[in-house]
Amino acid sequence: MISLNNKRILLGVSGSIAAYKSAELVRRLKEANAEVRVVLTKGGAEFVTPLTFQALSGNPAHTNLLDTETEAAMGHIELARWADAILIAPASANFIARLAQGRADDLLSAICLATSSTVAIAPAMNQQMWANAATQENLQQLKQRDILQFGPGDGNQACGETGPGRMLEASQLAAHVAEIFETGLLSEDTVLLIAGPTQEAIDPVRYLSNRSSGKMGYAIAQAAAEAGAKVILISGPTSLATPPRVERINVRSAQQMFDAVMQHVAHSDIFISAAAVADYRPVRIAGQKIKKTEDTLTLELQRNPDILAEVAALKNAPFTVGFAAETENLEQYAREKLARKGIDMIAANLVGEDIAFEADENTLLVLTAENKQPLARASKFILGRQLIDIIAKQKYNVSI
């Protein structure tokens, strides 16, 4: 069975009789453990009601661009950011033309224009409409913009004619959606990745730590596995589930994380330091719980090993990627860290109330010595795949 574990799929339904297959497609995507939201055009809602898709997906179906209940929060932008991938099935000849023109006067076309995620279409139309030069020119434009095309199939059509133009079956489309995430970019590589916080013991019940949830690192680990890499994830304490096909090693302190990295780094091609490793640890750990007896308490701290710098300094160091979480002067501090640590790449982000630490979304500024690439605000799963794509291209000297 295909897997779309943790994937957010936005299904667009445009005006075609093939819309009846979209209901089955929602079921197939859900069976593959995807979260599904549905957006219908006005024509799509004439064939299958929003209530049907709401019942099948477990989420409200969306139809209107200017919806006062959602547009106060810029609903089309939120949906565009939410989706890991967007599939228009069925994609009518009319909607394909609108997509090629870059229209944004209905909800579905506006989402497609506003997203940074992969967009795919599953054409469905009469065979003469499919063969028309205008349709073929529109499809060529979409291909040049990296919009994927699934199908169409060939056979009997609702109009009574026979030929190309049938929308693929739900099972086929679900399989194609799963393939979006299986890039194979790192199929020859072993990725060693650290994620989450560390905990530095003060006494048996207290420790020093930080607000890292591990979500960004785990998203990168999942993206690396989908890119075909063997992934070893060394994780500080988190409540997150291990991504499929990822080997996880649990640690607690920075020293334990350092020791685990040094044990595995010699056999790694890429090292990604996405963990929030404590810079310092207490010099002495109390054997019993420290009692509250004084107005002040002084802790003497000593530096922890610098995992990122140690890896970068190895004689046969892997391609090394660091992270920098800053509250100000993002690019300046990130470039200083890039040079100081002697690493190949750094992904920097600002931290705030609703972004980065503990949040589901983030933004990244990816820097190398020669290049700069900002990644717009999106889910951490989307950013993880974008970062893995950049790492693969940089490692193999493909222009970014």
Report mean pLDDT, rounded to a whole number.
91
Distance between the termini: 35 Å
What is the count of β-strands?
19
- The fraction of residues in strands falls at 15-25%
Write the layout of secondary structure elements.
Layout: E1 8-13, H1 19-31, E2 35-40, H2 42-47, H3 50-57, H4 68-71, H5 75-82, E3 85-91, H6 93-101, H7 107-114, E4 118-123, H8 127-131, H9 133-144, E5 148-149, E6 153-156, E7 162-166, H10 170-180, E8 190-195, E9 200-203, E10 206-208, H11 215-226, E11 230-235, E12 246-250, H12 254-264, E13 270-273, E14 280-282, E15 301-303, H13 307-312, E16 319-326, H14 330-341, E17 345-350, E18 361-367, E19 372-379, H15 380-395
Parallel strand pairs: 1-2, 1-3, 3-4, 4-5, 8-11, 8-13, 11-12, 13-16, 16-17
Antiparallel strand pairs: 6-7, 9-10, 14-15, 17-18, 18-19
Helix pairs in contact: 1-3, 1-10, 5-7, 6-9, 11-15
Walk me through what this model shows.
Helix content is 35%, strand content 25%. It is built from 15 helices and 19 strands. It has helices at 19-31, 42-47, 50-57, 68-71, 75-82, 93-101, 107-114, 127-131, 133-144, 170-180, 215-226, 254-264, 307-312, 330-341, 380-395, and strands at residues 8-13, 35-40, 85-91, 118-123, 148-149, 153-156, 162-166, 190-195, 200-203, 206-208, 230-235, 246-250, 270-273, 280-282, 301-303, 319-326, 345-350, 361-367, 372-379. Helix 1 packs across helix 10. The longest helix is centred in the last third of the chain and has 16 residues, at 380-395.
